[in-house]
Predict the structure.
Amino acid sequence: MKTVTSPLPAWPYPRWIAHRGAGKLAPENTLAAFREGSKHGYRMFECDAKLSADGVVFLLHDDTLDRTTDGQGIAGDQTWAALSRRDAGGWHSRRYAGEPLATLEAVASFCKANACLLNIEIKPTPGLEEETGRVVAREAARLWAGADISPLMTSFQPHALAGAREAAPHLPRGLLLESLWDGWLEHARTLGCTAIVCDQVLWDAKLMATVHGAGMRALAYTVNEPDMAEGLWSLAIDGLITDRVDLFSPSA
């Protein structure tokens, strides 16, 4: 029986994507990190988005504030007024002391002013997966209304992607995978995903053929070593997410 291969969707995004802004050279998920990545020529950024207690979409990777701010506790339990007073830069270095948390709205302004693209990872507070997906996607649709290229919405959480699809079905979606759990491809199809974003070590020729054969683009995170990058390019990967904006030229 002949295998039916779906056509790949149009892919307007660059090959290199800066992880959490330039999240090693500057405090991750802050505008300072975006500015640093931009200085190195990067024109697409990945970031993590979640909700404050009063529904403001802001950037933070962890559930708690402890690692990357001077605050403590579950970030999503606090209002934006409280979160906006947190220092999100001092943990990284004295140079960035006082750098605030960033709202998605502020990031959208930066991206539009600098002709940059965005991969928004929906990072829900546990228990708020679908709601977070809906609110983040709705806000992204508002902020990028009329833009030629929409942000790519990704998540490890299928329920978050379901919420995003419900709120803004026109925004492209990608399923993030740390492992190839049972049913991942069926979930991606059901969610209307245009991309699969895998841990770099999962990719091989067979997986690439499966993803491309299903009509989805293939991305890898977090690629910081030249040998790994070369191997992935040889597999015909569509994009690499990296911390090493100082090592990899975004035009390569």
